[in-house]
Amino acid sequence: MTEQGNPANLGTTSLTIPANSQLAIPAKTVVSSFTGNTRGSAVFTIGGPANNIEGLYQSTNLSTGAMSNTPMSRPSSYTGSTPFVVPWFTTNPGYVSRFVFVNRSSQAAPFTVQVLPEAGNAATLNVTSGVIAAQSMYVLDASSVVTGFSAATRAGAVVQVSSPDTNIDALYNVVNPSSGVVSNTRLTH
After folding, report:
1. DSSP one-letter string for the chain
2. Range of 112's domain?
3. Does residue 76 lie within any of the structural domains?
4. pLDDT tens figures, 98-131
5. Are residues 99 and 179 in the same domain?
6. Does residue 145 fall inside a structural domain?
7. What is the pLDDT of residue 94?
8. pLDDT digits (tens, 9 = 90+) for 79-94
C-alpha cells in the first residue's frame, strides 16, 4: 500500500518460508518503483499457525551502518475506533519526525490527534484531524501537528482512528539525517 497519488509497481508477491527457517525478503523485490516518495507499506498473509511465525522489518543505512529493526504486528480483534498512544514524540528541527498509518480497510478512516505536553509546556496545535484513505498509507509529519512549544520540543499524543484495530497499523518514525540513524516505534492501543 502506498500514499494516495504515489502508485508503485509490484514485484514478487508470493514466496514460501522453508520449515524451521527464516526468509529475508529485500524490499526492492516486493516493489520495483514509485512515482513519488520511495516509501510504502505491505501486508503479508502467511499460511499456517500464527504462533509459528514472527516478522521483522529491518532498515540499514549503507553509508553509516545505522540499523533499525521493527517487529511486524498482527491484527487483533478490537472492533470500535482505535486509540493509538504515542508516549513521546519530538519536533526538534534536527530530526525527521513523523507518524505513519496504514489502513487495510476498503473504507476511509477519519482520525483526531490529541497532544499531551509536559506540565508547564504549552503546545500550538495545527493538524488535529484527518482521513486515512482506504487501502493506503498516510504519513503525518510531527511538525505539522504541533507548530510550536513554549519549552522543550517534545510531547505525547493520542491518535483516535475511527476504524477497528484489525484494519489499522501505526508507527512513530524518527530519522537523524546527519548520522542516518532510524528509529521506528510501533504504536499501541
Report:
1. ---TT--EEE------PPTT------HHHHEEEESSSS---------S-GGG---EEEEE-TTT--EEEEE--------S-EEEEEEEEE--TTSEEEEEEEE-SSS-EEEEEEEEEPTT--EEE---EEEE-TTEEEEEEHHHHEEEESSSSEEEEEEEESS-TTTEEEEEEEE-TTT--EEEEE-B-
2. 82-186
3. no
4. 999 999 999 999 999 999 999 899 999 888 899 9
5. yes
6. yes
7. 93
8. 678 899 998 999 999 9
Contacts of 112 (CB under 8 A, 6+ apart): 128, 129, 159, 160
Residue 177 falls in which region: left (phi positive, over 0), alpha (psi -120 to 50) or beta: alpha
- Determine the Cα–Cα distance for residues 83 and 118; give it in Å rounded to an integer: 20
**Whole-model pTM?**
0.72
